[in-house]
Structures are given as C-alpha cells and as structure tokens.
Amino acid sequence: MIDIDHAAPRRRLPVFTGILVLIALAILISLGTWQVERLHWKEGLIADIAARQAAAPVPLADVDAMAAAGGDIEYRKVTATGRYINNKERHFFATWRGQTGYYIYTPLELADGRILFVNRGFVPYDNKEPEMRMQGQLTGEQTVTGLAREKLPGKPSWVVPDNDVAKNIFYWKDLDVMAESVGLETASVIPFFVDADSTPNPAGLPIGGVTQVDLPNDHLQYAFTWYGLAAVLVVVVAISWFRKGAKTPQQ
Fold first, then answer.
1. Which of 7, 47, 85, 214 falls between 20 and 30 A from 179, CA-CA?
2. Using CA atoms, how far apart are residues 10 and 4, in angstroms rounded to an integer?
3. Count of H-run helices and E-run strands, the chain
4. What is the 3-state secondary structure (H, E, C) of 135-178?
C-alpha cells in the first residue's frame, strides 16, 4: 500500500522547488535587464559629458540662469571675468598624477560684486602657501575659462575626513563653509564652482585643467554575470530533472 501521509509531501516538493526556481530566475533576469538599462544610461551620460567639454564656452550668466532654473550644469564649459581675491583662497587636499598637494580655490569677484569660487588648479604639497608661488597670484582683471561643477549637497561619505578650516585644508568641497571661513556672505556667492582649464599660469602654478571625469562603466559585465547565472540555473535544473526522469522507479 501507498502511505498517503508520506506521499503527499513528496508530490508537493517538486512544485515548491519549481516555484523557487522560477522566482530565482525572474530575479536574475530582472537584475541583468536592469544592468542593460544602466549601461544605456551610462553611455548616454558619458557621451553628454564629452559633448559639453567639447562645446564652445558660454558666458557665466547663461550657466548661472540654468542653475537657478534647476538645470544640469555639471561639466558645462563657461567663461567668467573678474578679479581674484588672492588672500581668501581655500585649499582642497588632492593628488594629481601621483603627486600629493592641493587644488587652489580662489574667489573671483565679478563686476556685479558677486563671488565665483574658481578651482585654479593643482599645487604640490610644498607650494601650499601663496608666498611659495607668488608669480601665479594673478592681479587685475582676469578672464577664466573652465568647467562648471555643481555644489555638493553635503559630505560625500562618512569615510571622508572633516574639513580642517583652521588649517585651511578641505577634504570635501563645502562651498558655504569655504565662503564663510574667509568672511564672504554666502548670499553673494554663486552656488557652483568653476574648474579652470589648462591655460598656463605664470611660473607654472597652479596647474590648471585638473578636472577628472571618472565614470566607471561595468554595467555590461554585470549584465553578463546576471544573465549567465540565470543560464546556469536553467542548465542545472534541466540536468537534475533529466537525471530524475532517467531513474527507474523501484517496485
């Protein structure tokens, strides 16, 4: 006789297993498809950034208006004219081509009295203080061309050190604190930065053109991984079913 109490669970188990397999397969395929969508988005973003960098520079007023309207200003080429306030420069800890040093953020006072913080470029560690690079302290009216960079909404990560305002060492670009620490009213500060281009400065410092566009694009690899796992799952299940089917039931 057949033991009904024990036979029922054995009949339900393959159904339950099949449901789990289908759920796992759906998840893997969904993850693969999501990575393909991310791939298309990332490729479009990279192409857009490249186009912005290659475009002719536009007046600062145009980018400022775009920012005020909530537009995407990141990496748009812009030109601005004003006078550098050299005694209020801020120093952002950075590395450039394997060398440790600082990016020099100097307020540029515009004709209308507003302030634009310009990343003039990189100086080695030993050239942090202005007196070590006096020839590069530009005076008089200057025109700078560079890339607009958006203001950070907050500290990027908990692993990033806190800014040491007293020593004028910034580990993340806090525009408001940069302005306040040198006595500038945040209301008069344009709410984004400009990274200066590679136009040489006197005596070679700061070194401009330091904007780094590093957008990892591993989505295709991830998509292959998820789709590959889905294919492996199908193969494993198919082999398992065929092996069970090949077995001769014992009498």
1. 214
2. 10
3. 4, 7
4. HHCCCCEEEEEEEEEECCCCCCCCCCCCCECCCCEECCCCHHHH
Nearest residue to 184 (alpha-carbon basis) of 79, 89, 120? 89
What count of other Cβ atoms lies within 10 Å of the Cβ of residue 111? 9
Structure tokens at 61: 């007023």
Helices 4-54, 219-246: axis angle to 10 degrees equals: 160
Q: Are 91 and 170 in contact (CB under 8 A)?
A: yes
Residue-by-residue pLDDT tens, the chain, 251 positions: 445 455 444 444 477 777 888 898 899 899 989 998 988 877 877 888 788 888 999 999 999 999 999 999 999 999 999 999 999 999 999 999 999 999 999 999 999 999 999 999 999 999 999 999 999 999 999 999 999 999 999 999 999 999 999 999 999 999 999 999 999 999 999 999 999 999 999 999 999 999 987 767 787 888 889 888 888 888 888 888 777 766 655 54
Contacts of 10 (CB under 8 A, 6+ apart): none
CA-only gyration radius of the chain, Å? 29
The rounded distance, in Å, linking the Cα atoms of 58 and 203 is 28
Residue whose pair of structure tokens reads 């289908």 in the numeric block: 22
β-partners of residue 193 are: 117, 149
